[in-house]
Every structure is written in structure tokens, then in C-alpha cells.
């Protein structure tokens, strides 16, 4: 076996770049791509949240047909901080449904005089103390955003719907996925040769700095060197190397590539769970998965 | 029409074990592990973790069919340890690694939030 995979245990390093209300950005260093990818896949498909799973339509005279409405309801993100206190419906011992595995909501509205917007604000829990409820988004200024529009009712139209919210994972249906996207980017790596300083004149250096569409480089006017300002913005378009090639310079002045084991994660939450919670839950799920596999490997009997 | 039932994603029939261990008939110290209800997440992780073991000569995985929720992991060792031991070690190593990573992550989050305030 070649040594390209290394030996023994690794100790990946994590560095947080930013935590927002709905996003988290962090670096994962000294880590093989399989681990980064597993983390990404788990966050998308295996972290449980709550979502509307069952819809009883008692009355619907809106322009949207029943299935359309049910689908729209299913995709609404629900605040799922208490998701761990619920059971999966299929694992719960109850017969039709119980408070351990499901939460009931209702949506009963009639447009009396004018067009009425039915939004997530009209979804009411049968139990008012319930902590699971439709997400209310807060924008960058700290103000509450408009609720999600479900359907518009014309005069005298009516909806009377009963919804059952259940716990689930993105593996079964994307509505349960706690993330909008998980972006994994390999860290760009730019090697600037020390001889670049002498080989290029000031005009050429300015040209090199301006050749980058992502403004990664910056000219240090004092020392007459080209510095890297924002390496994370580099998308390896190679415009800088092409510029140097056109100048007919030696082609080893600048090398643009990427780190093999250095990743930038950007996790965007749907609002169901705080972003840092999604990542830490993903780790817990991976730990459980690995210890279960270890146990089962131990118990497996050899057969031919 | 022939969509598999969603329950197949989450539970096994009562007579099926989570991991089946099949010894290779043609080579010594080689075995195949059929892991039910697993996918590329675990498959790729284990393949890589096994390759980091100096006693493992070969390891690879495949998902035989996209509608069947199982993977096959093949392990070939040099004889100093059995494929089963190697696979168990790989799982344990990954487990410790993830525990460390989780701790590091939580610590970093705490630090970051502390700085913010």
C-alpha cells in the first residue's frame, strides 16, 4: 500500500470563521476528504427535524388543490430545538399517534370580505404551550420578516385543515433536512515565487493584481511585492497565471492550486435548528454510527 | 411502481443481521462485509480509515444497487491481523477521531461566542 493515506489516527483542526443566526462558516484542517464529505452528507440527510407529515383536509375551496396545499404545508420549516424529546413515528409504540411522536396543528381561515393571505402565522398549535412552531425569520437588522405565504383566499373561500407534525430525517424527504445548503470548498493555495518581486516591473505587478476577478492580490507599494489579501475568495480561475504566461515570463512565478486536506464549510440552516447545533448533532450521529458499526462488526460471524 | 418502501431505509427484516461477514474463497486474509442500511457516508469513511492501517493490503467498497440500502466493503490484510479486526479498528479509530472533532468544534464555538460578547 502506498503511503498517500498516511498512518494511524489524525487530529483534524477546526477553526470557526463566522457564526450567524442562520449560517456558520468554519475551516476543517488536516482532514481527509472522506471525513469532510461524510460530515456534509450527514448534515443534509441524517440530522432530524420536525415537519408537517400528515394533513387532513376538512374543507378547501381555495384555488390550490388539496395535494398542492399539502405539499406547501409539508415544506414549511418548523422550529425544532426540542426535536430530541420526540420519538420517530415509526419507532413509537403508540397506535395511531401520541404526544411523544406527533404535534397537532390546525389551519382554519375564511376570507370574509376581501382577498386574504394565509400565512404561517395562521397555523395554530392545538396545544398553545408547544415549542414546535413555524419558523419566524429575522433579517439582518433584527426585525421580523413577513411570514411564509401558503395560499391566497378570494372572498368567501375557506380552508379548514388539520396538520400532524412529525420528526424525520432528510433521507426520507428533503422537507426534514435542517439545511438549505452545505457548501464544502477545498482551500485554495497560491504559491508566489520570491523571484517575482524582481522579475516583474511595477506596471506588470499592477496588471497582475488587476487580472484577478476576485481581487485576491494586493500590491504592497512600499516593498513592491504582490501580497495575497483574501485567499478564500480565490476560485482558481487561473486568470493570474494566464496573465503571466502572456507576458512570456517563466511559468513558475505563480502557482495556483488547492489544499488536499483543508476545507471551508458553509452551512446554511433553514431556521429549524441553529447552525452550530446542526454541526454538533452531525458529529454525534457520526460517533453513534461508527460505534454501532464497530459493535456489529465484532458480532458478525464469518461464513464462506 | 417498483419504488422500495420507505421503511426499508430504516429497518431490517428480523432474520437479517446488520453486518454480514463473508470470507473470500480465493484469497487468504480477505473478506467482504455486507453492511445493511449504510451508504457512501460510512463506506467511503471506512475504506479510507482501513487504508491508513499498515496491515491492510487492499480495501474498497461498492454500493451494488442504488435501490438496495447496503454496501459491500472488501478488506484484504497481510495476515498479521484478520480483516474483521482491521474493520473493527477502522470503526473505532473513526469514532475516536469524531469525538475529538466534536469536542474541538464545541470549544471553538464557545470561544467564538465568548469573543462576540
UniProtKB/TrEMBL annotation, chain A:
InterPro entries assigned: DNA-dir_RNA_pol_30-40kDasu_CS, DNA-dir_RNA_pol_insert, DNA-dir_RNA_pol_RpoA/D/Rpb3, RBP11-like, RNAP_Rpo3/Rpb3/RPAC1, RNApol_insert_sf, Rpo3/RPB3_RNA_Pol_subunit
Keyword Cytoplasm: no
Membrane found in the keyword field: no
GO biological process, alphabetically ordered: transcription by RNA polymerase II
MF (Gene Ontology): DNA binding; DNA-directed RNA polymerase activity; protein dimerization activity
UniProt keyword annotations, A-Z: DNA-directed RNA polymerase, Transcription
Signal peptide: none
Protein name, as recorded: DNA-directed RNA polymerase RpoA/D/Rpb3-type domain-containing protein
Automatic annotation (TrEMBL), chain B:
Protein name, per record: DNA-directed RNA polymerase RBP11-like dimerisation domain-containing protein
Signal peptide residue numbers: none
GO molecular function: DNA-directed RNA polymerase activity; protein dimerization activity
Keywords per UniProt: DNA-directed RNA polymerase, Nucleus, Transcription
Any single biological process term in GO: transcription by RNA polymerase II
Alphabetical list of InterPro entries matching this protein: RBP11, RBP11-like, RBP11-like_dimer, Rpo11-like
Keyword Transcription: yes
HAMAP family: RNApol_arch_Rpo11
Domain DNA-directed RNA polymerase RBP11-like dimerisation: 31-103
Main location: nucleus
GO CC, one annotated term: RNA polymerase II, core complex
Pfam families documented for this protein: RNA_pol_L_2
Subcellular localization(s) per the UniProt record: Nucleus
Similarity section: Belongs to the archaeal Rpo11/eukaryotic RPB11/RPC19 RNA polymerase subunit family.
Amino acid at each position: 500500500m502506498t503511503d498517500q493515506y498516511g498512518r494511524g489516527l489524525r487530529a483534524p483542526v477546526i477553526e470557526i470563521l463566522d457564526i450567524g443566526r442562520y449560517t456558520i462558516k468554519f475551516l476543517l484542517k488536516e482532514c481527509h476528504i472522506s471525513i469532510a464529505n461524510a460530515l456534509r452528507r450527514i448534515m443534509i440527510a441524517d440530522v432530524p427535524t420536525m415537519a408537517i407529515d400528515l394533513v387532513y383536509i376538512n374543507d378547501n375551496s381555495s384555488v390550490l388543490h388539496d395535494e398542492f396545499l399539502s405539499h406547501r404545508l409539508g415544506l414549511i420549516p418548523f422550529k425544532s430545538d426540542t426535536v430530541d424529546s420526540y420519538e420517530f413515528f415509526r419507532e413509537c409504540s403508540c397506535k395511531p399517534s401520541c404526544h411523544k411522536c406527533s404535534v397537532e396543528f390546525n389551519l382554519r381561515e375564511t376570507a370574509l370580505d376581501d382577498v386574504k393571505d394565509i400565512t404561517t402565522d395562521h397555523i395554530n398549535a392545538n396545544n398553545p404551550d408547544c415549542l414546535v412552531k413555524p419558523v419566524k425569520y429575522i433579517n439582518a437588522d433584527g426585525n421580523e420578516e413577513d411570514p411564509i405565504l401558503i395560499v391566497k383566499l378570494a372572498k368567501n373561500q375557506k380552508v379548514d385543515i388539520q396538520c400532524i407534525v412529525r420528526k424525520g430525517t432528510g433521507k426520507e424527504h428533503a422537507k426534514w433536512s435542517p439545511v438549505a445548503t452545505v457548501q464544502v470548498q477545498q482551500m485554495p493555495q497560491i504559491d508566489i515565487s520570491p523571484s517575482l518581486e524582481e522579475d516583474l516591473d511595477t506596471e506588470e505587478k499592477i496588471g497582475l493584481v488587476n487580472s484577478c476577478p476576485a481581487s485576491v492580490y494586493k500590491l504592497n507599494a512600499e516593498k513592491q511585492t504582490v501580497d495575497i489579501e483574501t485567499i478564500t475568495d480565490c476560485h482558481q480561475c487561473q486568470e493570474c497565471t494566464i496573465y503571466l504566461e502572456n507576458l512570456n515570463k517563466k511559468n513558475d512565478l505563480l502557482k495556483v492550486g488547492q489544499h488536499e486536506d483543508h476545507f471551508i464549510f458553509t452551512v446554511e440552516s433553514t431556521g429549524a435548528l441553529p447552525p452550530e447545533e446542526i454541526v454538533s448533532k452531525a458529529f454525534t450521529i457520526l460517533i453513534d454510527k461508527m460505534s454501532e458499526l464497530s459493535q456489529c462488526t465484532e458480532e458478525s460471524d464469518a461464513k464462506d | 411502481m417498483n419504488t422500495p418502501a420507505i421503511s426499508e431505509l430504516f429497518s431490517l427484516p428480523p432474520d437479517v443481521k446488520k453486518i454480514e461477514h463473508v470470507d473470500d474463497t480465493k484469497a487468504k486474509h480477505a473478506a467482504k462485509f455486507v453492511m445493511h442500511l449504510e451508504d457512501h457516508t460510512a463506506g467511503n469513511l471506512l475504506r479510507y480509515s482501513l487504508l491508513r492501517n499498515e496491515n491492510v493490503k487492499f480495501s474498497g467498497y461498492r454500493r451494488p444497487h442504488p435501490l438496495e440500502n447496503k454496501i459491500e466493503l472488501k478488506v484484504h490484510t497481510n495476515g498479521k491481523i484478520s480483516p474483521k479486526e482491521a474493520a473493527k479498528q477502522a470503526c473505532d479509530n473513526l469514532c475516536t477521531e469524531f469525538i475529538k472533532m466534536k469536542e474541538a468544534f464545541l470549544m471553538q464555538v464557545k470561544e467564538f461566542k465568548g469573543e462576540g460578547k
